[in-house]
Design goal:
There is one protein chain. The protein is mainly alpha-helical. It has 10 helices and 2 strands, in the order αααββααααααα. The protein folds into 2 domains: about 10-75, Winged helix-like DNA-binding domain superfamily/Winged helix DNA-binding domain (Arc Repressor Mutant, subunit A, Orthogonal Bundle); about 80-245, GntR ligand-binding domain-like (Four Helix Bundle (Hemerythrin (Met), subunit A), Up-down Bundle), CATH 1.20.120.530. A two-stranded antiparallel ribbon has the order 1-2. The two termini are about 20 Å apart.
């Protein structure tokens, strides 16, 4: 049964409510979720809060949003299989294999991005970081997940290199399950906060060389955090299912 939202963090509460219904089987894989107006009425929330929750649920691979059609419950196995087929051909890619590639892509991206980003784009990145800090102070885990992904994706976007953007998109999809479960740990947030601030400072000072160093150190810490949080069975690629987030 749907429960009226009463928690302080509305987005977080909506996400948890719908996630529970998906995991319990009340909403089945492939099923279209009720219309936004219906969900807003049942959950007693605004359309803005619901849409933000949908973005988070999509980030966590619980739903798929089809423009003009609505939101559907995602099939985690099919999603993982699709990523494996389209992104890499080997059968046993490990978590650290992906981290190696991510470090290579994001250090290149941050160097180019610091050199090429417009003043407006740097301002946008600064606002994202400020929202990230605020979400941490409010202990809003779902916003932390969304804003962390947005911060890194914007850095790649600002390079203006569409090949890098496409590769990063593939990596982002592979890492969503890890980002989602990891940011439920407060230590992970603290370990991301200062590196994000230092990376942002590199944009403000246009120091591309330092930006590469800061990004590498940030991702090294990220890898360490994830290896501690996840068991060896959970760090063996993208075959993890929604149970990791339970």
């Amino acid at each position: 049964m749907m429960k009226e939202i009463k928690r302080i963090s509305i987005t977080d509460a909506i996400v948890e409510n719908i996630r529970e219904m998906i995991e319990s089987g009340e909403f089945k894989i492939g099923e279209k979720l009720p219309a936004e107006s219906k969900l807003c009425e049942d959950l007693k929330v605004s359309r803005t809060s619901l849409r933000e929750a949908f973005r988070v649920l999509q980030t966590l691979s619980y739903i798929t949003i089809l423009p003009g059609k609505g939101a559907y419950v995602a099939d985690p196995k099919q999603s993982a299989s699709h990523n494996k087929k389209d992104w890499y051909e080997i059968e046993d890619a490990k978590f650290y294999d992906f981290m190696d590639v991510r470090i290579a892509i994001e250090t290149l991206s941050v160097r180019l991005s610091v050199e090429r980003a417009t003043t407006k784009q740097v301002g946008e990145l600064q606002k994202i970081h400020e929202s990230f800090v605020a979400a941490g102070e409010e202990q809003d885990g779902v916003r932390l997940i969304m804003l962390d992904e947005l911060f890194h994706n914007k850095i790649t976007e600002y390079t203006g290199n569409q090949l890098l953007v496409n590769i990063n998109k593939q990596l982002t999809e592979c890492f969503r399950i890890y980002r989602g479960s990891s940011f439920m740990n407060k230590d992970v947030y603290r370990n991301a906060l200062e590196p994000h601030a230092r990376i942002l400072e590199c944009f403000l000072t246009r120091d591309a060389v330092r930006a590469v160093t800061e990004m590498r150190e940030h991702l090294d810490i990220t890898a360490q955090d994830m290896s501690i949080i996840h068991s060896p069975a959970d760090t063996s690629g993208v075959d993890s299912t929604h149970e990791v987030l339970a």
